Amino acid sequence: MNVGLVIFDQFTDIDFFLPWDLLNRVRLLGLSKDWKVEILADQKNCLSAAGLEVKSTKPYSFANECQGLLFCSGQKTRALLKDQIFLSNFKLDPSVQAIAAIDSGALILAALGLLKNRKATTYPSAFETLKELGAEPMRAAFVEDTVATAAQCLSGDKLALWIIERLCGQSVAERVFNSVKPLV
Amino acid sequence: MNVGLVIFDQFTDIDFFLPWDLLNRVRLLGLSKDWKVEILADQKNCLSAAGLEVKSTKPYSFANECQGLLFCSGQKTRALLKDQIFLSNFKLDPSVQAIAAIDSGALILAALGLLKNRKATTYPSAFETLKELGAEPMRAAFVEDTVATAAQCLSGDKLALWIIERLCGQSVAERVFNSVKPLV
User: Fold this and answer.
1) Nearest-CA residue of chain A relative to B24?
2) Nearest-angstrom CA–CA distance, B4 and B23
3) Where on the phi/psi map is residue B100: left (φ > 0), alpha (ψ -120 to 50), or beta?
4) CATH number for the domain running over A2-111+152-176
5) What distances in angstroms separate CA B44 from CA B8, B54, B60, B161, one per listed residue?
6) What is the pLDDT of residue A181?
7) Could you tell me the pTM of the whole model?
8) What is the pLDDT of residues A44-53, one digit of tens each?
9) I want to staple A73 with a disulfide (CB 3.0 to 4.6 A). Which of A104, A167, B13, B92 is the partner?
């Protein structure tokens, strides 16, 4: 099972790193035998907004071979919306892939036609753009409508857990969450 | 103002990356003029538990020049507790430094004598070791007793915000939190 995280230069750190950690726990906790998390970009390294360099492990087109997929957020998403070379990599099918996006990553999903007449969330300042791209913006931390979207960085855990639940079931998602949830 | 994040090989990803993102927002949001987040390790690169390579920016001894400091967690902490060369780098003073630790990072604080008769938290399986090292374990997500400790990875935001509040004040910490808190 392959899960891809789509990044690009100036990606928002936590939008990538939080799901990255949670998704990898499926493997690290021994909850799935063939679980692999891939970092998707066409360039060798991407530089985060806060200045960390992350190596990609697969090109963008590998998204089409992933069972789970998460589009990260960042300042560059506005340019990527109009980048036909970038967009043409993705031939996605939400009926067989668990597809998610955080914050402005939702705009990329919309540009790919995956949010047409679907409810979705992003940060409020991007609601108007999301609407222009055919989606129905919802003010919520997490929205599931065939694909899943989440708003504001600390909601990224919900997307990672949604992908895990879709691909591995509820009990695996719960075990991952139990390993990180604040102690009570 | 320097804030240091102490890492080592096999560090738990989110214990570093979540505070890393939040702490850097002070600079990225333009909330402090001289704010710098440093990654402290004596080796050039550290490999995270999930397999990401992170470059250090300063040696461990730079911790003594930091106004804020956070010890990350990971499997290697048990060995570091007995590593006198590692421990001898740190000459810390919680009366003038905002010092924090997540999960098993608390054991390092204890080994440095910073939790003697102080309340602290970590993940429950490390409570016994924390007690043996002189601390008073508390079952809580966040504990402040001169230094700050937090239990289970998704509590890392509380430590980053505590450091920011101590060094820059409550309104700056609130602005950082507002930029990431799940949309309601």
Assistant:
1) A50
2) 10
3) beta
4) 3.40.50.880
5) 10, 8, 11, 28
6) 87
7) 0.96
8) 999 999 999 9
9) A104
Average pLDDT taken over every residue of chain A: 96
The amino acid sitting at B135 is A
Q: Is A139 on the interface with B (CB under 8 A)?
A: yes
Contact A37, A23 (CB under 8 A): yes
Q: Quick check: A37 contacting B, CB < 8 Å?
A: yes
pLDDT of A153: 81
Characterise A33 by phi-psi region: left (phi > 0), alpha (psi -120 to 50), beta (else): alpha
CATH 3.40.50.880 for domain B2-174: yes
Residue A182 phi/psi, 5-degree rounding, is -50, 140
Does A50 reach chain B within 8 Å, measured CB to CB?
yes
Find chain B residues with C-beta within 8 A of A157's C-beta.
154
Closest CA to B109 of B157, B147, B66: B147
Counting beta carbons within 10 angstroms of the beta carbon of residue B87, is it exposed (0 to 12), middle (13 to 18) or buried (19 or more)?
middle
* Beta carbons of B49 and A28 less than 8 Å apart: yes
Pairwise CB contact (< 8 Å): A21 & B12: yes
